[in-house]
């Protein structure tokens, strides 16, 4: 489980929710693709979660950045259908357990091959399955947020020409990033094997993930 200090100042979360300003939930255009939203801004390097670095040592192919791939994918009705199907299927098939229960440690990232996992494990498997379906890995980014309980949480962000969308084990609906109510801390870089800041929590006690 992602471990981020919980006594985060709630005003940042409130500001994000108030500032969302986009059409609610996963409304679709007549063509069957999601309504476009603004992309999220990223700035500067961020410290990678320790458990992610450990995962990459064990499975480097899951973490390499291929800069010949596009940063964003073109959203189509076919792609949207695939993303929705994979997100829902994995949310159903994985049994939620904490890392402490599963591995006996506070934070451990892995592919849930035994059918059990927590938030980052769901996201890693979704990325793997979608990459196998032909979506460029570079456009699918592991992302750390502060959730509605002011706790650390991991989701998968897909960057598209219609905005950035979030795949989450807490819900089957795939939402634009600014409709989730989350504070965005950092995500994988699209330019190197590393992470970039999303500006949501800059203090070390909040942004560090053990």
UniProtKB/TrEMBL annotation:
Residues of the signal peptide: 1-27
Alphabetic keyword roster: Signal
Protein name: Putative transglutaminase-like cysteine proteinase
Source organism, top-level taxon: Bacteria
Pfam families associated with the record: Peptidase_C93 (PF06035)
